[in-house]
Design goal:
Blueprint lengths: L6 E7 L3 H11 L5 E7 L11 H4 L11 E6 L10 H10 L13 E4 L4 E3 L1 H10 L4 E10 L4 E14 L6 H6 L10 H21 L2 E4 L3 E5 L4 H10 L8 H4 L1 H10 L10 E3 L8 H5 L10
Parallel strand pairs: 1-2, 1-4, 2-3, 6-8, 6-9
Antiparallel strand pairs: 4-7, 5-9, 6-7, 7-10
Helix pairs in contact: 7-9
Length: about 290
């Protein structure tokens, strides 16, 4: 992108092959390297294939940019430390940043949280020494099934400003998954206060509508597998994870976890990535 700095796009990967392909194409022109971490086990400890490794040919156009980090050494017990296992995989992106310089830029997000390319350019030009908090509207089941939920976990900063990928992803909040009860009580209040304070002091900048969070773009069976494998074990209940329940929710565009968010089908227009607009036929299986 620039001779004076590089941009590293870092994210954990499970089996979201379509979304990985979309992400690579959307961000290719503004990212120098993609650091993809893939584990041999799920966060709940089950053995899993290395889906990226098995499908590398599909992404051969980007092979020179992709740094594939395999994680097979988590020391945490999946029965008691499922969140630490997730944090392990996210923090393992550092293994793909050996040559990252202090002034290079790092994007930290999940594979389904795609930052707008023009926002990356804007941030580097206007607020390069801050931490970017990137808000993204959420889309469930289909690329054009938009939720009222807005996600703000995608972050971007200079490498020197990142203590760890998980730290920057949680910034500027306490972790709500802390074992400390007081931290949990203070999480919502103090997290909101810190965010306002950091904006006022100029240490971070918040971008509204800064990308797209496309999630659960899978078949009901695959969504069920994901629900039973990820860290939110509180949702591992039959009313959420059964294939029949998921099919019903997809049919009426209902939030997967009864959280009160409203979902609706929207037109694929200029608010979507150009790559999706140009490839609607290719991804017709995840468009309504």
């Amino acid at each position: 992108m620039s001779k004076t700095h590089k941009v590293f796009d870092c994210f954990p990967f499970y089996n979201e092959l379509d979304l990985l392909e979309i992400r690579l194409n959307v961000l290719n022109d503004v990212v120098d390297y993609f650091v993809l971490t893939e584990s041999t086990r799920t966060f709940t400890g089950k053995e899993k294939p290395l889906f990226y490794a098995e499908n590398k040919k599909r992404f051969k156009r980007f092979a020179h940019k992709i740094r594939h980090v395999i994680v097979d050494d988590s020391e945490y017990d999946p029965k008691t430390d499922v969140w630490q296992r997730e944090f392990d995989q996210k923090n393992s992106v550092f293994r793909g940043l050996d040559d990252c310089r202090d002034d290079d830029f790092v994007i930290v997000s999940d594979v389904d949280e795609i930052v707008k390319p023009d926002l990356i350019i804007k941030f580097i030009k206007e607020r390069p020494n801050a931490i970017a908090i990137i808000k993204q509207p959420c889309y469930y089941y289909y690329l054009n099934c938009q939720s009222t939920e807005v996600f703000d976990k995608a972050k971007m900063a200079r490498f020197k400003n990142i203590e760890s990928p998980q730290q920057i992803r949680a910034y500027p909040k306490f972790s709500k998954h802390s074992s400390n009860k007081l931290v949990k009580i203070l999480f919502k209040w103090y997290g909101s206060f810190r965010k306002r304070l950091c904006v006022k002091l100029g240490s971070c900048v918040i971008y509204e509508n800064g990308g797209w969070h496309f999630t659960y773009m899978k078949s009901p069976e695959e969504i069920s597998d994901k629900m039973t494998d990820f860290s939110h074990t509180e949702y591992n209940l039959d009313k959420f994870t059964s294939v029949n329940s998921i099919q019903s929710r997809m049919k009426i565009f209902k939030d997967p976890y009864d959280r009160g968010y409203q979902l609706k089908i929207v037109k694929i227009d200029g608010s979507f990535p150009g790559y999706i607009i140009d490839n609607q036929k290719k991804y017709s299986h995840i468009i309504r």
